[in-house]
Design brief:
247 residues; mainly alpha; flat
Length: 247
């Protein structure tokens, strides 16, 4: 097994990898400590109990990103986390916080019987769900912007512009469709797919919260579906962000 402590002179970047591994261990220690203190310390405190669960889950994304960085980049330690990694962690944090609020709404009666103070009991179900939706909308905006900038997208790269949509009238559109449209428009459409799909995945959660959960009176079955399916939208967003940032 390679001893990184004594390999600094033989393997370039070994010292940097060792520093990254120390950071990884500290993240793991902090996550274990947070989980250990959750029930006796954090659970009775509104906001904090939801935040701890969300933060520990988001830390796993940072942990994985730093581990990949330690393997692929041995030359230097970054002064800050990559924007794509920060955005991914924020998506996980906000979506998990939203899911925790849904679970608290579903457990309102049991929490009331157990004298556990939660956001739905403190502010009401509607305001608590609005907070969760606002966090999802914020993370959607951030992740969409990250994918947008990583692709270097501009409005002229939209397929309708590529096809001559606002340049040569209907004749220009027909000519481009018959001739030059081809792969250029296909590539432009593929580039725009990731940020558009990220926004659709995130906003679908907000629409579900409002149209299904809120408007139907917070029915148990609707909340359960939200708890089950909202993480899927989060995973879709993370996959699309990874695809967008790697192209």
């Amino acid at each position: 097994m390679l001893d990184l402590a004594s390999a600094g002179g033989k393997y370039p970047g070994a010292e940097n990898v060792q520093l990254l591994l120390r950071l990884l261990r500290r993240i793991v220690y902090m996550a274990v400590l947070a989980v250990s203190l959750y029930t006796p310390v954090f659970k009775p405190i509104p906001f904090l109990k939801n935040g701890v669960v969300s933060l520990v889950t988001a830390a796993s994304v940072v942990l994985g990103g730093l581990a990949a960085l330690a393997v692929s980049t041995c030359s230097s330690i970054p002064s800050s986390l990559p924007p794509s990694l920060l955005a991914s962690a924020s998506v996980v944090f906000c979506h998990m916080y939203h899911r925790e609020i849904l679970m608290d709404i579903d457990d309102t009666e049991r929490d009331k019987a157990g004298h556990i103070l939660t956001l739905p009991r403190l502010f009401g179900k509607s305001l608590a769900l609005s907070l969760g939706g606002a966090l999802v909308a914020l993370s959607t905006a951030v992740s969409g912007w990250i994918v947008w900038t990583q692709h270097g997208l501009r409005l002229p790269s939209l397929p309708i512009f590529q096809a001559g949509g606002f340049r040569g009238g209907t004749g220009g559109i027909a000519a481009r469709l018959a001739g030059e449209m081809g792969m250029g428009v296909i590539r432009a459409s593929a580039a725009w797919f990731a940020p558009v799909a990220v926004c659709v995945a995130g906003l679908s959660i907000c629409v579900y919260d409002w149209r299904v959960v809120w408007m139907r009176g917070f029915r148990h079955e609707d909340i359960d579906k939200g708890i089950a399916w909202c993480p899927l939208a989060m995973v879709v967003m993370l996959l699309l962000m990874g695809t967008g940032c790697s192209t």
